[in-house]
Design goal:
about 500 residues, alpha+beta, 6-stranded mixed beta sheet, 13 helices
Length: about 500
């Protein structure tokens, strides 16, 4: 009987293979230990045993090596995405101030190690954007994969895990950005690296973009559109904004974001006479502003459907959990019946109602400094999310009519002028590829276009004529969406499943 040999192979992808090989005879056991090493400075983890009987030593290292490569191709995609996401969460890019260049440099280091062409571009050295490209045959225009690098601030006191620790606890990875939007960035990076590893022939270029300042002023994407459009110009793009959810009855609904509402925040201001608080005055600006924002919040905004919402409500009303929508959906098309129908929908599901009309939410008030002095001015900031088929001027005129007070100033807040665009097409090869992949992944899948009540950088690309889709890769695992909230988290299983969906979608659209 021969001796057992122990051999270790290390691969550029970060996969380590430890093989214990039995005596030189057919049927001898081979035990493979696959270890996924993390980024520089990270701890090793995820050691997985795999037994492969029937390999003879005559096949030698080649058989084991081939097996290792196969295991890497099969199992490393989700692990790679998890490693990237953990690293990205630990880079604090809270906006403000952002400091997104730190993420851009991390992405550049990964791309450089993998031999992927890339560059850092932007107008602010502390807030650079990352752009990488895999070249294709040029048979079709490029596919753009995009995900922003900044996150909203987190209050550690409201978290049960440090928000920038990347802590893996109770089957979830915790951290700011695990939902919005570093999970998508990690998945996209993992897919691009996998494409490079496998040397899959591409019929079109695949571009990876991570832009800065999405959570605040969108200065990153605006700089790119003005100064580097040729670097990111593509036929279509995959972006944040979509989501998947399981319904109690069994179907999994994949909501592809094809449109988004437009942030149109307004300032409501009143002026009055300074006086002692012991003698109330009729021109008290606090009262005027309070009355104005109450009227705005309580008024019913008109209902308007677009191509996306019309299709969305028609498809959702066919599901058992939304059968109650079936008699209401046709009424949304009739002027006299639309408001009562929308009010019924709001009572059942405010999320659905927000897709039907412009919404108004007073969120900030400022007035006075001491309790016994009537101030000279009072003001409120109101978050208005208008439908994409309404103009800003149209909405402002309607709000002024609702307030009906000539002493109230109602003006747009400066610096918030995002474009209003038509929904992305439902007939592109990318949309059809998503439909195909989601139906294949789940036999009870329901795929619908969706209008997001929030806003993304995708609107700036739609304005340029690019079809942009919020891709629903990751299953919503919590009842409440934790994006921007406390204890933001994602499970490694959801991350891996979503990354594999992205791999399939990109393969259908970009690979030969």
């Amino acid at each position: 009987m021969g001796r057992w040999a122990n051999t270790i192979w290390r691969f550029k992808s970060g996969i380590c293979l430890q093989a214990t090989i039995g005596p030189e005879r057919p049927g001898a056991g081979v035990v493979l230990w696959i270890t996924n090493r993390g980024a520089a400075g990270a701890k090793s983890g995820n050691i997985k045993p795999m037994k492969a009987g029937g390999l003879s030593l005559k096949a030698g290292g080649l058989a084991v090596l081939a097996c290792a490569i196969s295991v890497s191709a099969q199992d490393s995609l989700g692990e790679r995405a998890l490693r990237y996401l953990t690293d990205l969460v630990r880079i604090d890019t809270s906006n403000p101030p952002g400091n997104e260049t730190r993420v851009a440099r991390y992405l550049k280091r990964v791309a450089d190690e993998e031999g992927i062409g890339n560059e850092l571009v932007g107008g602010n050295p502390a807030r650079l954007n990352f752009v990488a490209r895999l070249g294709g045959a040029g048979d079709a225009r490029p596919l753009l994969l995009m995900a922003h690098s900044d996150v909203v601030p987190a209050e550690p006191a409201n978290w049960t895990a440090p928000p920038f620790s990347g802590l893996l606890r109770d089957r979830f990875l915790y951290g700011r950005g695990t939902v919005d939007d570093k999970s998508l960035l990690a998945a996209e990076l993992a897919v691009v690296v996998e494409l490079k590893h496998r040397s899959r022939p591409l019929r079109r270029d695949v571009i990876l973009l991570s832009e800065s300042d999405e959570e605040a002023a969108s200065t990153g994407i605006q700089w790119l559109v003005r100064n580097a459009w040729g670097r990111i110009d593509a036929e279509f793009a995959l972006n944040e904004g979509g989501f998947a959810m399981d319904l109690p009855g069994g179907p999994r609904v994949y909501q592809i974001q094809t449109a988004e509402k437009v942030p149109t925040p307004v300032l409501v201001r009143a002026r009055g006479t300074a006086a002692h608080g012991s003698l109330p005055r009729p021109d008290n600006p606090v009262l005027r502003v309070a009355r104005a924002i109450t009227r705005l919040a309580e008024a019913d905004q008109p209902v308007r459907l677009n191509a996306t919402t019309r299709r969305y409500f028609a498809e959702m009303s066919k599901l058992d959990e939304y059968r109650w929508l079936a008699p209401l959906a046709p009424r949304l098309e009739r002027a006299q019946a639309s408001l009562p129908a929308a009010d019924e929908i709001r009572q059942r599901d405010p999320e659905l109602d927000a897709q039907l009309r412009t919404t108004v939410s007073p969120d900030v008030m400022r007035a006075g400094s001491v309790v016994n002095v009537i101030p000279t001015t009072a003001e409120a900031q109101v978050d208005v999310r208008r439908l994409p088929n309404e103009t800003r001027e149209e909405v402002l005129a309607r709000l002024r009519k609702i307030v009906h007070d000539s002493e109230i100033e109602l003006t747009p807040l400066p610096g918030h002028d995002m474009p209003s665009t038509e929904p992305s097409s439902l007939t592109t090869s990318l949309y059809q590829a998503m439909e195909s992949v989601f139906h294949k992944a789940n036999e009870r899948a329901v795929v619908v276009p969706y209008m997001q009540r929030g806003a993304t950088d995708g609107s700036y690309l739609r304005q340029k004529g690019m079809a942009v889709y919020g891709v629903p890769l990751f299953l919503r695992e919590d009842k409440e969406n934790r994006a921007h909230g406390s204890d933001e988290r994602i499970s490694p299983e959801a991350l891996e499943a979503g990354t594999r969906l992205l791999w399939e979608i990109v393969g259908k659209v970009a690979c030969k």
